[in-house]
Specification:
This protein is mainly alpha-helical. The chain is built from 13 helices and four strands. The radius of gyration is 22 Å and the shape is globular.
């Protein structure tokens, strides 16, 4: 990593300045909450979770009253609790996902979903660590999380994961609902009561996560990959610490989360007759494929077919 004494000195000063520490922590938490609510809205296009969304938004509204970093942690924790309740409701029951948190810790692997989330967050941690090293920040000095008092805990790495955790969350949702991952891809170890990946399934899932991080997002008249966005936001944090920038925004760019399998599209497919399909230019085999997959938790409709369905009145 580059040696930037001025940047690290500014980082330590900011971490000891309650006002500046709060402004950075708030920007991180606000971005995380915005993305969490966006993920829930995305899920609501397919699943009936209005109550879960309502209570999550109610908890999120309390962010405007937070005035200290502990206040932010309280709001973030309450929003996360409601978020994971909604998350659990849309996951297949046979995966036995109960919650993300336990009485003792968060990073448990007591079910396949939590194991996959752990791997997703591990991938994200690597991206954040790489960005911190590239910019020249000190990874152990954070703003939302407590400053590290031992070597393996690097608070700034945890901080920078917060606005981007949604990338791993939707990767896990998509993997299980599309059946790219199944219960047969895991095995349970009795010595520590945890799940493990089968080797091929692990690599398949890592490839899915990598694909998500390599997806493009519109950003100031350009298209950037999300791993590039993480480094860009880390660099913006450095500029803010050095007072070369007066604003800090981790919420932009915002992703466009769209589904091709929402309830309206499914209803159209199931109501589509053979004659109407022919008039739309949809072949018999394609119609059979659409009908079969409309009953699954998640499926993909390719753009040309989606265009034809969208033109149906």
């Amino acid at each position: 990593m580059p040696v930037k004494a001025d940047l690290r000195a500014a980082q330590i000063l900011a971490a000891n300045d309650p006002k500046k520490k709060f402004s950075i922590a708030r920007a991180l938490v606000q971005a995380k909450i915005e993305r969490s609510l966006q993920v829930l809205d995305w899920l609501a296009e397919r699943y009936d979770i209005p109550r879960e969304i309502q209570v999550t938004k109610l908890e999120a509204s309390k962010l405007r009253r937070a005035s200290t970093v502990p206040d932010l942690r309280t709001v973030e924790g309450r929003v996360a609790r409601r978020y994971w309740e909604a998350f659990g409701k849309v996951m297949p029951e046979h995966l036995d996902f109960q919650e993300r948190m336990t009485s003792s810790h968060q990073n448990n692997a007591s079910d396949p979903v939590n194991l996959a989330l752990n791997y997703g967050y591990g991938f994200l941690e690597g991206e954040c660590r790489r960005a911190i090293n590239a910019v020249g920040l000190e990874p152990s000095v954070g703003f939302f999380h407590d400053v590290s008092d031992y070597q393996t805990k690097q608070s700034l790495v945890y901080d920078l994961q917060e606005p981007f955790r949604w990338l791993s969350d939707i990767s896990v949702i998509a993997a299980f609902q599309s059946e790219a991952l199944n219960l047969s891809d895991f095995y349970f170890t009795g010595d520590d009561y945890r799940y493990r990946f089968e080797v091929e399934a692990k690599q398949r899932f890592i490839d899915l996560i990598r694909e998500r991080f390599n997806a493009g997002v519109a950003c100031k008249h350009r298209v950037l990959k999300w791993d590039t966005v993480i480094e860009q936001k880390t660099n913006e944090l450095g500029r803010f610490l050095l007072e070369k920038s007066l604003t800090l925004d981790f919420a932009e760019p915002a992703p466009r989360l769209q589904r091709s399998d929402d309830r309206e599209v499914r209803a159209r497919i199931l109501a589509l007759t053979g004659s109407k399909a022919r008039r739309l230019g949809i072949g018999k085999s394609t119609l059979q494929y659409l009908r079969k997959n409309a009953c699954k938790d998640q499926f993909t409709i390719y753009k040309p077919v989606m265009t034809k369905l969208g033109g149906w009145t």
